[in-house]
Design goal:
Elements: H1 7-27, H2 31-39, H3 47-53, H4 57-62, H5 65-75, H6 87-107, E1 110-115, E2 120-126, E3 129-135, H7 149-173, H8 184-188, H9 192-214, H10 220-234, H11 244-251, H12 260-266, E4 273-276, H13 282-291, E5 295-298, E6 314-316, E7 330-332, H14 335-343, H15 368-371, H16 376-388, H17 400-404, H18 406-412, H19 417-446, H20 450-459, H21 463-476, H22 480-525
Parallel strand pairs: 4-5, 4-6, 6-7
Antiparallel strand pairs: 1-2, 2-3
Helix pairs in contact: 1-2, 5-6, 5-7, 6-7, 6-9, 6-13, 18-19
């Protein structure tokens, strides 16, 4: 009954009736009336739908993965009239994407980045909600007839309105006016993110000065209400801290609550001045580097500083030869930025130097310990992370007994959870073998024959058989559905083990091929 009388359906009926009037005017060849009716055509808004579907702002953030991915997709598509993809909609999608990226970069909410074949995966944390989206690579997109763009455009229309409301709320939460007014010169040079960052700076300065101007013009009634509230809260403070409340009120405007992850991300590329060459993905790096506290520029018009600046610490390049090499900076590949972001430390630049094969780009969305296979470069990054933390270093009075305990080493960060489990299993096996050896010695001293001992050992089941025997009665008591679920879980574990073995076999083959290639080169040189 509610859907029957929905305001949006009523608007659709009105638009359908109005289109019949336009069609009738065109049939009568009354062009002037048709143009007049077209100029006054009614339109609809999706505000009510968004408000009904998302009662709170957190609900909208939880459902933001698909909208941002869809908007980023259409921001890279070409405008095609045949598929009803208008240029105006493409520009609107690009504007929404840049506004979203500017907020994430300015507030340092970005957490993970992964470059894949499909595009670049990003993950941000806004108001405690993790938002993951996929941005396509900046390349010419080829559209196929297999996709129904009419359905996608219907979703896009809703997603555009949703992302507009989200951006509005986010900008107002940090006292920035929305929609932003960009510099037309930078906008014409396709430097929208840099223009938005300058807009943020200007609004922050204005928001700091604005309370000083408006504070003097406050009405007497509002001032009395504030004094009354302060007086009521003042009585709730301890007697030995009479000025604690006033101290908190004075510093409330200047303090911004930031969690530990935001503080770490804000300091990652601090005091780093990075210059981008023209062959690297500029839009992605302009988004990622400032999100982690770095200063970035590029090769082209509208850049904040040129490539000849002596204060540049790193230059991101993706070609083997350079026209002019500066000794005061390091030349690295773009993967160094993404790997440093995922590791939360500044990685050594030597493996990422120009002309070298970079290390494997590991996905931050995969838990290697849960998968059962930890790549070698992941172990190297963990060692670098442990070396960067002061609390991981061993204490001066630590002895060998403490280092032998795998749990202590795991807690101190020396080894991973998988290595700790393997060490615990080996230790348990050694204890069992040692106990069996001592039992054998006791039996020999007591004069028990080895034949009886062997027959008794053969009759004794091993630990695996005991585990199976213990497990079988419980499985027999299970229902068919639960038994099938248990079998499926075991199959999944076995499949994961097979995948790990396949990865290890592939690693061994690669190492063997490298060794044979080195031997072949040495043989040729000799």
């Amino acid at each position: 009954m509610y859907i029957l009388h929905d305001p949006l359906l009523e608007k659709f009926r009105e638009i359908r009736a109005y289109q019949k009037k336009i069609k009738k005017a065109k049939a009568k060849k009354n062009d002037e009336l048709a143009r007049l009716l077209l100029s006054r055509a009614p339109s609809y808004k999706l505000d009510m739908v968004i408000r009904d579907r998302y009662p709170t702002f957190v609900d909208a953030l939880r459902d933001l993965d698909d909208p941002i991915t869809m908007v980023h997709l259409f921001a890279m598509l070409p405008a095609i009239d045949r598929l009803k993809i208008e240029a105006k909609r493409i520009h609107n999608c690009r504007r929404l994407c840049h506004e979203w990226q500017a907020y994430i970069s300015r507030t340092h909410k970005l957490r993970k980045v992964f470059v894949a074949v499909k595009g670049i995966y990003y993950q941000a944390e806004v108001d405690g909600q993790k938002i993951t989206w996929l941005a396509p690579h900046a390349r010419q997109q080829v559209l196929t007839d297999d996709v129904d763009f009419n359905v996608m455009l219907t979703f896009l229309e809703f997603y555009e309105a949703l992302l507009g409301f989200v951006n509005f709320q986010l900008y107002h939460s940090i006292n920035v006016k929305y929609p932003p007014i960009l510099d037309p010169r930078l906008e014409a040079l396709a430097a929208d993110l840099y223009a938005l960052s300058r807009y943020f700076d200007a609004n922050y300065r204005a928001s700091v000065q604005e309370p000083q101007v408006t504070g003097s013009s406050r009405s007497e009634q509002e001032q009395e209400e504030c004094d009354l509230r302060l007086a009521q809260l003042q009585h709730q403070l301890p007697a030995n801290e009479p000025g604690a409340l006033m101290h908190l009120v004075q510093n409330a405007a200047s303090e911004i609550e930031e969690d530990e992850a935001t503080k770490d991300c804000k300091k990652l590329f601090q005091n780093k001045k990075i210059f981008l060459s023209r062959e690297v993905p500029r839009e992605s790096l302009l988004f990622v580097i400032p999100a982690f506290g770095g200063i970035v520029s590029w090769e082209g018009d509208g850049a904040p500083f040129t490539g000849a600046d002596d204060s540049i610490t790193h230059q991101i390049v993706d070609r083997p030869t350079q026209g002019h090499v500066y000794l005061s900076r390091e030349y690295v590949q773009p993967q160094w930025v993404y790997d440093s972001v995922n590791a939360r430390i500044i990685l050594p630049t030597e493996p990422y130097m120009v002309g070298r094969d970079p290390p494997p780009h590991l996905s931050p969305f995969i838990d290697d310990e849960a998968e059962g296979y930890v790549p070698d470069y992941a172990k190297t990054i963990k060692q670098l992370q442990a070396a960067a933390k002061t609390d991981v270093q061993p204490l001066p009075g630590m002895g060998n007994d403490d280092l032998d305990n795998s749990q202590n080493m795991l807690a101190e960060g020396y080894i991973s959870r998988t290595e700790a489990m393997e060490a615990a299993e080996k230790k348990q096996q050694m204890m069992l073998l040692e106990k069996q050896y001592h039992d054998d010695l006791k039996m020999e001293l007591q004069g028990v024959s080895t034949i009886n001992k062997q027959s008794s050992a053969e009759s004794l089941p091993d630990a695996q058989q005991i585990a199976i025997d213990i497990e079988d009665p419980s499985r027999l008591m299970m229902s068919r559905k639960k038994r099938g679920l248990a079998i499926a879980i075991e199959m999944g574990k076995q499949r994961k083990k097979d995948q790990v073995e396949k990865l290890k076999e592939r690693k061994r083959n690669i190492e063997a091929a490298r060794k044979s290639e080195k031997k072949h080169k040495k043989a040729q040189l000799s």
